[in-house]
Amino acid sequence: MVKPIRKYLIRGGTLVDSTGVRRADLLLEGGTIAASEAEIERSKGYFEIDAQGLIVSPGFVDLHTHLRQPGNEKAETILSGSQAGILGGYTALVAMPNTSPTIDSPEAVSYVQQLAEEAPLDVYFSGAITKGRLGESLTEMSKMADMGIRLFTDDGTGVQNGQLMRRALEYAKGIGVTLAQHCEDAMLANAGSINEGAVSAILGVKGIPNAAEDVMVARDIELVRLTGARLHFLHISTARSSAMVQMAKAEGLPITAEVTPHHLVLPDTKLMDFNTVFKVNPPLRSDLDRVGLWKAYFAGVFDAVATDHAPHQKEAKDTTLDAAAFGMIGLQGAFGAVLGELHRQLDLPQNGGRGRSDLSDEQLIHLISLFTWKPARIAQIDEVHGGPLLRAKPANITIFDPKLRWRLGDEDLVSRSRNSPYFDTDLVGKVIYTFVNGEMKLKEGELCL
Ligand SMILES: [Zn+2]
C-alpha cells in the first residue's frame, strides 16, 4: 500500500469561513492545519496545490443522508455513499436511521458505527425517536446519546402523536440532544404521490397538500414553546412553513431548519412527463413555494442546505408515479445545483470562466455557512468539522472552482443508484479537492482513496 502524503501546501486560494473572506495559504500536516497565513514559503516535502481562482472552504457537512446500510445494500452502502460525498465536497455525513433494521437501539448504533470506521469521510448517525419508527414508544435515547448520537429522528415519517412528541422533546432536552422532524401529517398526506395542485390535477395523480407539512410545523413550534427543547425541521418545502419558522426564530425559540437543493432548484412541473426520478417526499412544490423558499433563504431563515440523498434501485423507480419510491440522490451535484440557481436568482452573469466568484462576500459567506459551520453546530460536530480554517484546527477542507459550469452525467456517479434529478440542470461551482482529517481524498476532481 502506498503511504499517503500527509503534508500539503495550499497556495493562492481565497479562504471563506465563519471569520470571513481572506486571501491566505494553508499548510496541512498530521491531520491538522499547521499554518494559515497570507503567504507561506514553499518548502520541500510538501505536496503543493495551486488554488489560484479557487475557494478554500471548510469541508461540507450533510445533515441528511440515507446510506441504506444495513438492509438495502443494492441501493447504497456506507462506502459508496461516502465516496459520492467526497466527490460532492463533503467531509462529514449524518446518516438517517430508517435502515433495516432501524437504528433504534444501542446494539444497532454499535453495529453501524463499526461499519463506518472504514468510510473515507466521517460518518455520524442519527437515531430513531420511536422504536421501529412506528410512532408508538420512545427509544433508549440516553443510551444512544452516551454512544455519541446527537440527533434523533423518525425521518421518512413524522411523529404523528403530539403527546408522544411532547414527551420525546422533554426527554431530549434532559439529555442534551436534538430532535429532527420530518413534518408530515400522515392523514392529510393521504397516501399522495406528488404535490397537490395544478400538476397533480392535470396528471390525475393523488396529491399531498402543503397543509400536510404546515400543520405539523405549526404543532411542533408550539411544542417547542411548551417544552423549551431544541428542534430541527428537516426539508422545509413550503412558503408557509418557512414563514412560520422565521416567526418562531424571531421569538427566540430554539429552532433550526434545513432546505434541500431540489426544493430550491426544481418545481413540480418537472413531473409533467411522469418521470418518477422527481418523486420525492416532501414533494417538489409549485413555483410559488419555490419563490417563498428563496425569500426565506435570503432572509436567513435556513440553517443548512441538506441533501436528503435517497438512493433507490432501478426497480423501485421503473414503475408508475403512484407505485414508485420517494427520493432522489443528491450528494454529487448538490452544491453546484444550489450555486447555479443562486446565480439565476441574483441575475448574475451566466458565462462562467475561471476566476473570482460573482457573488458578493456576504452572499458567499451565507451560502458556505449553510453547507459547513451551521450544520456542523446542529450535529454538534463543530469541534471537528465546519472550520474555521485556522491553525491547529482539524484539516477538513473543500476546495472548489466557484465559476466552473458543468453538467453531471450518469457516468460521473459513484453511488450505487442512478436516481439523480440534476442531469439536465446547469450546475455552477465544482469541487476540485476534498481533504478529510488532513488526507487528500479528492484530487483534481478525481477520487484518490
Ligand atoms: Zn424526510
Descriptive notes:
29% of the residues lie in helices and 21% in strands. With 449 residues, it is of the alpha/beta class. The chain has one domain: Metal-dependent hydrolases (TIM Barrel), CATH 3.20.20.140. The strands form five sheets. Strands 3-2-7-18-19-20-21 form a seven-stranded mixed beta sheet, covered by helices on one side. A five-stranded parallel beta sheet has the order 11-12-15-16-17. Helix 6 links the parallel strand 13 and strand 14. Helix 4 packs across helix 7 and helix 7 packs parallel to helix 8. It is globular. It starts with 6 loop residues before the first strand and ends with a strand. It binds zinc ion. The site of zinc ion has 5 residues, from loops.
In short:
The chain is built from 14 helices and 21 strands.
Properties at a glance:
TIM Barrel; 7-stranded mixed β-sheet; 449 residues; 21% strand; binds zinc ion; alpha/beta; 14 helices; 21 strands
Layout of strands and helices, then pairs:
Elements: E1 7-11, E2 14-17, E3 20-23, E4 25-29, E5 32-37, E6 47-50, E7 55-58, E8 60-65, H1 78-87, E9 90-95, H2 106-116, E10 122-125, H3 141-146, E11 151-153, H4 162-175, E12 178-181, H5 186-189, E13 194-195, H6 198-203, E14 207-208, H7 210-227, E15 231-233, H8 239-250, E16 255-259, H9 261-265, H10 287-298, E17 304-305, H11 314-317, H12 334-345, H13 361-371, H14 373-378, E18 397-406, E19 427-436, E20 439-443, E21 446-447
Parallel strand pairs: 1-6, 2-7, 8-9, 9-10, 11-12, 12-15, 13-14, 15-16, 16-17
Antiparallel strand pairs: 1-4, 2-3, 4-5, 7-18, 18-19, 19-20, 20-21
Helix pairs in contact: 4-7, 7-8, 8-10
Residues 155-156, 182, 234-235 line the site of zinc ion (ZN).
